[in-house]
């Protein structure tokens, strides 16, 4: 059996970094509030997508115990050269999904939005998508009730 080398992982990370990257969020299933259901590697979409936002920041990073990037899976430092770790930040706006309940989030590459949308639009409803793209990462989270008074940010490090 062949192994995926470090240089191969870096090449895959570079390919992902050059794609259109969005974070989608969804209301999921209310039953998850009392009995969480684990994510499956075979899933290809959110259960109930509410909308998605373009990545605010896409950067290479490397593990570093003193790094300025802090996520649940560790600390990382930004890297000027490609690595097999990709830092992603998504800043949702106050008006995005006001009053929605969020229980699931996913990172997608290759989303294609409708061509008639205004230039510069960064938040998209499911009806504004020609193609949802490919789901790279999925996480079910404790219920968030969206508020127009909160501008939510999410940060991830994808390790390929």
Helix content: under 10%
Largest sheet report: 5 strands, antiparallel
- Which structural class matches the secondary elements? mainly beta
C-alpha geometry: globular
Q: How many E-type strands?
A: 12
Average residue-wise pLDDT: 96
What topology, given as strand order, has the largest sheet?
A: 9-2-1-7-11
The number of distinct helices, counting runs of at least 4 residues, comes to 1
The SSE string, one letter per element, is HEEEEEEEEEEEE
Radius of gyration: 16 Å
Runs in which pLDDT lies below 50 for 5 or more consecutive residues are: none
Strand content: 35-45%
Distance between the first and last residues' Cα = 18 Å
Descriptive terms for the model:
single chain; 160 residues; mainly beta; five-stranded antiparallel β-sheet; 1 helix
Characterization of the model:
The chain has 160 residues and is mainly β. The protein is built from one helix and twelve strands; from the N terminus they run αββββββββββββ. The protein is globular and about 40 Å long. 25% of the residues are buried.
Q: How would the blueprint of this fold be written?
A:
Elements: H1 6-17, E1 21-26, E2 49-54, E3 57-63, E4 69-71, E5 74-78, E6 85-91, E7 101-109, E8 112-113, E9 123-124, E10 129-131, E11 134-145, E12 153-159
């Amino acid at each position: 059996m062949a192994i995926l080398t470090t240089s191969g992982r870096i090449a895959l990370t570079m390919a992902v970094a050059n794609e259109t990257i969005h974070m989608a969020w969804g209301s999921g299933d209310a039953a998850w509030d009392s009995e969480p259901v684990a994510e499956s590697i075979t899933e290809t979409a959110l259960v109930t997508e509410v909308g998605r936002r373009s990545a605010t920041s896409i950067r290479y990073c490397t593990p570093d115990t003193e790094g300025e990037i802090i996520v649940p899976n560790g600390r990382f430092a930004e890297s000027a050269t490609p690595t097999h770790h990709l830092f992603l930040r998504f800043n949702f706006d106050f008006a995005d999904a006001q009053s929605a309940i969020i229980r699931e989030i996913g990172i997608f590459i290759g989303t294609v939005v409708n061509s008639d949308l205004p230039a510069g639009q960064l938040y998209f409803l499911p009806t504004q998508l020609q193609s949802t793209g490919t789901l790279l990462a999925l996480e079910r989270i404790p219920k968030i009730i969206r508020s127009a008074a909160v501008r939510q940010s999410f940060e991830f490090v994808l390790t390929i």
